[in-house]
Amino acid sequence: MVILLGLTGCDSLVKNLGGPPANLYTLTPKSTFAKGLPRVSWQLVVEEPIASGGLNVDRIALRSSPTELKYFARARWTERAPRMVQTLLVESFENSGAIIAVGRKAIGLRSDYNLIAELREFQAEYFDAGGIPVVRVRLNAKLVKQPRRAIVASRTFEAAVKSEGKDIRQIITAFDEALGKVLRHTVEWTIKIPSG
User: Fold this and answer.
1) What predicted TM-score, i.e. pTM, was given to this entire model?
2) What is the domain extent for residue 73?
3) What is the 3-state secondary structure (H, E, C) of the chain?
4) Residues 62-114: tens digit of each pLDDT
5) 31, part of any domain
């Protein structure tokens, strides 16, 4: 059974007692997309998604109720969740083979469009009595035309995937599947909007 620690200082207490270091987890980019995705000649910058303080961390979030946020003990993402999602978005766009150039703002790419996102849900939810969580990922995306900074389109993408069990590895697999669906839909939508 996965041990849960609250939002308070419990995690630092475990470190002070000499507990084992946290296991690090990461997720994978998408590499399969809908057939017939158009090839585009414009360039895209993917900005780091904004997120609430509770999700803007490298800790893996869970909810036992809609109003309570906790974290898994001794399990962390390899980087802050929004930064990880940004990396996976860039890699997924590259894997699509549909766009001439995509990157982060930091590399100095002169973009035709910027993708600005907000990570609104990124947690395992234990709302049912069975103890098997549902992983929920929700991302609001805005496509912004440069240099006018005009919003061309906005859409929210959400996926919920039930874990196959209580083990942290099974929960991470559910995170990977849920985020994968959101990544795929975000890439396909972004590519099609200026072409439509």
Assistant:
1) 0.88
2) 36-195
3) CCCEECCCCHHHHHHHCCCCCCEEECCCCCCCCCCCCCCEEEEEEECCCEECCCCCCCEEEEEEECCEEEEEEEEEECCCHHHHHHHHHHHHHHHHCCEEEEECHHHCCCCCEEEEEEEEEEEEECCCCCCCCEEEEEEEEEEEECCCCEEEEEEEEEEEEECCCCCHHHHHHHHHHHHHHHHHHHHHHHHHHHHC
4) 999 999 999 999 999 999 999 999 999 999 999 999 999 999 876 677 899 99
5) no
